[in-house]
Amino acid sequence: MDYGADSNARSPALQWRDTMARSFQYYLDKSTPHPVGRWFGSLFVATLYCLRIYYVKGYYIVAYGLGIYILNLLIGFLSPQVDPETEGPALPTKDSDEFKPFIRRLPEFKFWYALTKAFLVAFVLTFFSIFDVPVFWPILLMYWIVLFVLTMKRQIKHMIKYKYVPLSIGKQRYTGKKASSANSGFSKD
């Protein structure tokens, strides 16, 4: 049988998978212009995961792995796409340099999507006892905090050295020059 010749000859499972994939992509595309709603959804998923860890009192190694992955995503989110240390300065370093916008190595949407998927996968892993490895969680927590502080310190030094700010709140508006006082008496009648 040649399944590639006719789409009707494909198995129902493959057709269902393709339909679900198209539906998922449709809703993912519709969520793109709504970052606040997306992040609230992720916050809900993260809260569910934290509550699960709290009530089960286990799966700390899964939480540690999730924390390391989130730290890795955060570094990609805060880093420029073109690293000035390795590929030369792409960001302006003097006032006379041409303005080049900050382009992230990991865009906000991909950061959100990877973060949400990570929380969902970690949540699912908490239902399998093989991942409940007995560990002394305060040691893991302290090690993660030290790792976070050292990594962020290095990242902030990099930001200061190459003078870039990866966060932008809202759209910048340029007003131009103010009108002189002589023109203030002029009216458009």
Automatic annotation (TrEMBL):
User: Could you tell me what this protein does?
Assistant: Involved in the retrieval of endoplasmic reticulum membrane proteins from the early Golgi compartment.
Query: Which Pfam families has this protein been placed in?
Result: Rer1
Does the entry feature the keyword Transmembrane helix, yes or no? yes
> Could you tell me which species this protein originates from?
Araucaria cunninghamii
Q: Where are the transmembrane segments?
A: 36-55, 61-78, 135-152
- What is this protein's record name? Protein RER1
Give the bilayer topology: Multi-pass membrane protein
Mind telling me which InterPro entries this protein's record contains?
Answer: Rer1 (IPR004932)
Instruction: Could you list this entry's UniProt keywords, alphabetically sorted.
Output: Membrane, Transmembrane, Transmembrane helix
| Protein family membership | Belongs to the RER1 family.
Identify the taxonomic lineage of the organism of origin. Answer: Eukaryota, Viridiplantae, Streptophyta, Embryophyta, Tracheophyta
Q: Where in the cell is it found?
A: Membrane
